[in-house]
Amino acid sequence: MAAISLDSRDVAAVLDAANTCDTVVDGSSAVRDLLAALASLVRCDVLFWNRVRLEPEFAEICLVDATTTRPTRRAPLEDWRERLPEHPIMSGRYGPVVAISDVLSRRQFERTWLYQEAFRPAGLGHEIGLELSHPSGEINVVVLSREPGRDFDDRDHLVLRLLRPHVDDALRRLTCPLPSLSPRELTVLRLVRDGLTDRQVARRLGVSEATVGKHLEHVFARTGARSRLQAVTVCQPLLDQPPPPPVEGGRRRAIGA
Question: Residue 175 burial (CB < 10 Å; 0-12/13-18/19+)?
Answer without folding.
Answer: middle
